[in-house]
Amino acid sequence: MLNFSYGGFNTGNALQLPTGGPCICIGRYNYCHRQPRADKLFSVDVSAIAFDCQAGAIMQSSSKVLSALMGVCVGDALGVPVEFSRRAERIKLPILGITGYGTYNQPPGTWSDDSSLTFCLAESLCAGFSPEEIAESFCRWFRQAYWTPHGRVFDIGNATRAALYRLERGVPPLEAGGTSEQSNGNGSLMRILPVAFYHKTLDLSSLIQRTHQVSRITHAHPRSQMACGIYISIAACLLRGLAPKQAYLEGGQNVREIYSQPPYASELANFQRIFSGKLDELPVSEIQSDGYVVSTLEASLWCLLNSSSYAKAVLKAVNLGGDTDTTGAVTGGLAGIFYGFDSIPQEWVAQIARIDDIIELSGRLEAALYSS
Ligand SMILES: [Mg+2]
Q: What element of type H or E holds 5?
């Protein structure tokens, strides 16, 4: 059992730590994960903790892995209580922070399938890239409630369910996803972000190919693959430090050639508003926030491009109504990368279910991807 301490301490300031057991401490500037060394309260300099933890699981809150995973999860949790609500309702009663109950009667801080499958993917990548392992992890979520906030699956998309049944019948992962035009819900886009962490080690063509493979496990239509590819290309630009508008323009441009080839070229018209470079100039009335993969990609980019903070971006996304948790999660992943973990309101992070497990997973993936 982990003790959890969340506070607004600065590096160099004294900090009171909880007693007993391993503990995770989070601050605005850094956090660490360490073994206990005293059975009573003591104060210790944070920089000393950081030093102590060099050999352990220390990671900085500036970690882009943590920023991205927490960005997805908080955006998801903001949207869960009001999923399927109408935009008019959100205008009348906007979401302003973490709430609970509502659509699925879940307590505040509950995240849904978007985050569960993102965490399954992230954890699988800790052991290397294997579509078989990713698919197995998704099935474990479905059947054994693995990586769920409270031990129960309460939300699953139709295309994802159908693909998981096919996997259980022995269909290979890269052939399991639906291929019909009706199988273009946002179910692969909502969980794809961890693939972007390969941007440091793969060239763009390989990065996008891997993205398509991960989409195909549940969503194999070229349109869903493309939506994921565009999103990952933009995320890779944000990870390299570009600002949102530049990342949107360059990320889109970088995949134009790949998507000018079959089987993707015939899908280009569906992404015309994104490739125009002017998506952000559309009025909100033109932005759909339903479960269609192109709607979710457009809405998330539009929210990112028309906001000036993590909180503003995800609240804008959730208050579009409709598929609120997924629009929040997809927006939140990009906004988390750009604005960073420290920009996510502390009072929201503190309410997130299984926060210690998410931080631990982020550390593991960061180490697996970048330590060698
Ligand atoms: Mg969901």
A: strand 3-6
Residue 21 one-letter amino acid = G
pLDDT digits (tens, 9 = 90+) for 318-332: 999 999 999 999 999
DSSP letter assigned to residue 278: -
Sequence-distant (≥ 6) Cβ neighbours of residue 189 within 8 angstroms: 215, 219, 224, 227, 228, 231, 293, 296, 297, 326, 330
Confidence band for 1, pLDDT divided at 50, 70 and 90: very low
Nearby residues of 58 by Cβ (< 8 Å), 6 or more positions away: 32, 33, 34, 50, 363
pLDDT digits (tens, 9 = 90+) for 150-180: 999 999 999 999 999 999 999 999 999 999 9
pLDDT in tens, 49-78: 332 333 334 456 779 999 999 999 999 999
CA of 116 to the centre of ligand 1 (A): 9
CA of residue 197 to ligand 1 center, whole Å: 22
Ligand 1 center to residue 361 CA distance, Å?
20
Query: Distance between CA 337 and CA 117 in Å, rounded?
Result: 19
C-alpha 351 to ligand 1 mean position (Å): 18
Distance from Cα 190 to the centre of ligand 1, integer Å: 8
pTM, to two decimals: 0.87
Give, for 34, the enclosing helix (H) or strand (E): strand 30-34
Return d(Cα 17, Cα 218) in angstroms, integer: 44
Q: How far is the CA of 77 from the centre of ligand 1 (A)?
A: 9
Distance (angstroms) between ligand 1 centre and the Cα of 319 equals 15
Cα–Cα dist 254/343, whole Å: 28
Cα(295) to centroid of ligand 1, in Å? Answer: 15
Phi and psi based region of residue 145 (left: phi greater than 0; alpha: psi -120 to 50; beta: remaining): left
Residue 7 C-alpha to ligand 1 middle, in angstroms? 29
Could you tell me the end-to-end alpha-carbon distance of the chain, in angstroms, rounded to an integer?
30
Separation of CA 272 and ligand 1 centre (Å): 27
